[in-house]
Design a protein that fits this description.
alpha+beta, four-stranded antiparallel sheet, 7 helices
Length: about 220
């Protein structure tokens, strides 16, 4: 499918702007683990995701990670074009969690569209507001919710993303998503297992009681 099917405000651009976008946008496919943006070191451009899954996260000085948000098909990755966002100073890293196909809109092209299209400018502000809301939600979770509730929510979210109750994910990877130590995750998962909410096996976690996890995450 064409970029026009995935860029939400394509039809609000002039013919000239559509031609500019189509002429300069390039398609790329990357394997899992590919770093697409690493703080201020890279500025590849705005990404329009066709299929796959990206993860945006922060890394502390001690090397501990925490996931800010994830991006899926039809999402827009704005921070990969952070060089055109002078007021944004986040040291965000963006990596591919799965094989991901996307279009790259060069920063100078998107900047041109923002400067000359009210629709693009408003849409960019909308993306920024959405990401800010995601980050504020995360801050509230960390500040006010105990770890057992955060872990229960994460497991249910993973089930929804992967469309399965058997999650092939390591304790270390969960810790990276939630900004904690692997040992903390392991202890809590073992507690969940004693409560018959999950079953732990090598390299996998089977969700046994979604309703119980949901009640825990919502309390």
């Amino acid at each position: 499918m064409a970029l026009s099917e995935y860029f939400p405000i394509y039809n609000k651009l002039t013919n000239q702007q559509q031609e500019l976008l189509s002429a300069h946008a390039t398609k790329r496919t990357v394997p899992p683990g590919t770093i697409l943006h690493n703080g201020d070191a890279t500025c590849m451009g705005l990404l329009v995701i066709r299929e796959g899954q990206l993860r945006a996260f922060l890394t502390s000085e001690e090397g501990r990670e925490i996931t800010l948000y994830r991006l899926f098909a039809r999402d827009i990755c704005l921070f990969s074009a952070s060089c055109m966002l002078n007021s944004i100073q986040f040291e965000i890293t963006v990596t591919a969690e799965k094989e991901t196909e996307f279009w790259i809109i060069p920063p100078y092209v998107y900047k041109n569209l923002m400067d000359n299209s009210l629709a693009v400018s408003n849409y960019t502000n909308q993306i920024m507001a959405t990401r800010f809301t995601d980050i504020m939600w995360l801050v509230e979770q960390i500040q006010w919710k105990s770890f057992d509730k955060r872990l229960a929510h994460f497991l249910l979210e993973e089930c929804a993303i992967e469309e399965t109750n058997i999650l092939k994910i390591t304790h270390e990877k969960i810790a990276a998503h939630l900004g904690t130590a692997r040992e903390v995750v392991t202890r809590m998962l073992k507690y969940f297992q004693t409560e018959n909410m999950v079953q732990l096996t090598r390299g996998a976690i089977e969700i046994l009681d979604e309703e119980k996890l949901a009640r825990l995450s919502e309390n």
